[in-house]
C-alpha cells in the first residue's frame, strides 16, 4: 500500500512460515452452531467461515507480517500506474483448479462480474468501482477504475488482487446465488472439501496435486493432510470435547478461564499446551453495539447514558479478575489510534469542515466514562440519570418514561457461541444497574441461524459486536460505517450510523499518498467513531490464547505482526516430530 514490500525478489518463504516444517496428520477444529451451505461466496446460506481461507485463492496473497503488502499467487505479475487508476494481472501459467483445469483470464473476468453482481454483499461495492474489465493478452486481465468523481481509492488495485477466483464453467447450468448445499465451488487452493455431514462435520483434504506447492508464498504453510471442522450446539460442549481430545485446539477469550485451564490434568501431563500469541494490530472494537435505527438510541445522550451505566471496571474485575484492559477507541493499541486531548494539526484540519455535524468530544477529546470500581458506580449512575433527563426521560413510579408515558425497554440479542456466556454474565450485571435508572433490559439468546436472520434485518436494540480492524484499513470501512449500509439489510453497519464526517475521513484515508496523511485520516476517523457513542466497549484481545494438542507446533520465534489472526492457525502450524522442536508455554513478541 505504501513504500516497498519487505520481502525482496527471489524470497524463499514468508518470514513467519517454517519451510522445514513436517507435513502430514490431521487437525480438528470446532465451530459453535451449524451450517446449511458450502458456498462462502453466495448471498444465501450460512457456510463454515473457514472455507474462504482454506479452499479458495486470489490473484495475490497477503503477508501478515506487514500492514498491507501483497505477493504473487494466482497472478505471476501485477502492473499499475502511479495514481492506481488501473491494474493489470498476468496469470501464473501453472495456476490450476483442483480438478486440474487451468485458470484462465475468462475465469478471472467471470469471477469479478459474478461476485460483484450476484455474490455476497461484501463483494458488491468493489464491482461498482470498476469502469471496465477486459483480457489484454494471453493470461492477462486489466481493470480500469472509475474516475468520474476524481482519482480512485488507492487501495482498489490491492483489493482487486484479493478477489477470490472461481471456475466459470462450473456455473453455466447452476444458480450461483442460491448457496445450495451440494453446489460446492471448485477452487484453486491447497484444500478441497472431501466430505461433510450436515450441521455435524466438514472435512477438508489437502490436494496432493495442488499447483502452488513450490511457490515461495506457500512454503512451510498448509502442512496438515486433513482439516476437520466439527460443529457443536454450544461453547461449553465444544470446550468439553477439547478436554476429551476430540478437537485439537481452542481459543480462550476470557483471561480468568485461561488461568483455570492450567489446572487440567492434560495440561499438567504435558498433553495440552497453552500458548499466548501477542500481536501488534489495533484493538478493534468489541462490545455491545446500539442500533440507532431504534428510538431512543438515535439520541446520543441516551447512548452516552447507557455507556456511563455500564460499570466496566467492576464487571472486568468480577469476570476476568481485571486482567484485560479496556478498549479506549476503535484503533487503540496502535499508531492509528486517536491521541488524547483536542484534535490538532492535520487531524483537526480534516475534521474542521464537518464541525457542525460532530458530536461533543470529537474535536475537544473524548474518553469513556470510568467508575471507581465499586459495585454501586454512583457517580456514573447520577451522570446517566442527568443525560436521560436532558433527553426527555423521567422516572415515574420507578420506571423511566418519556413524555408520552412509554417505558424504556431494551432488548439485547446474543448468539449462542464462544462469547455468549461471558456476554450474558455482563448483561446480568448491567441489567441490575439499569434497573436503578428505571430501564428494563431483556436478554434474548438464540441459535446461529436465528441470530443471522435477525442481525441482517437489524432486529435488536443492542447486540454483541466484535469488529477486528487492521493496520491497513481500506474500502471495507465504508461497509462497516458507511451511510449506504444504514438501511441496507445484511450490511456490517450494525449501529446504523450515517455520518458525513466518517465518510469524509474514509475518503481521505483512501486518497492518502503518504503514510503520514494516512495515519492522520485514520486517527480522525477514530475520533468520529468513538465519540459517536455507538458501542459500549469491553476489554481488548491484545493477546491470542490458544490451548492446543502438544503435538501441534508453530514458529515460536517468528510470529507475524498480526499475531493469531488470519493466516496463522492452522496455516503455518504443523505436527511436530523428533527432528523439530515443539512449542513451549510462551509466546514471542511480534515484530513492530
Q: What is the gist of this entry?
A:
This protein has 592 residues and is α+β, with helices and mostly antiparallel strands.
Task: Tell me what the structure shows.
- The protein has 16 helices and 22 strands.
- It has helices at residues 51-54, 105-118, 124-127, 156-161, 235-243, 255-260, 265-269, 300-309, 312-320, 345-351, 378-390, 420-435, 448-456, 476-481, 500-511, 515-531, and strands at 26-32, 60-62, 70-72, 75-80, 86-91, 130-137, 140-145, 191-197, 201-206, 226-232, 249-251, 272-278, 285-290, 394-396, 399-401, 409-415, 440-446, 462-467, 535-537, 543-549, 552-553, 574-575.
- A five-stranded mixed sheet has the order 17-16-18-13-19. It has a four-stranded mixed sheet with strand order 1-10-9-8.
- Strand 2 (60-62) and strand 3 form a beta hairpin.
- The radius of gyration is 24 Å and the shape is globular.
- The two termini are 17 Å apart.
What are the defining features of this structure?
16 helices; globular; alpha+beta; 592 residues
Q: What is the number of E strands?
A: 22
Outline the biggest β-sheet: 5 strands, mixed
Question: How widely separated are the two ends?
Answer: 17 Å
Q: Tell me the strand percentage band.
A: 15-25%
The rough form would be described as: globular
Q: Which strands sit side by side, in order, in the main sheet?
A: 17-16-18-13-19
What is the tally of helical segments?
A: 16
The pLDDT mean sits at 93
Helix content: 10-25%
Going by helix content, strand content and strand pairing, the class is alpha+beta
Evaluate the radius of gyration: 24 Å
Residue windows where pLDDT falls under 50 for at least 5 positions: 578-592
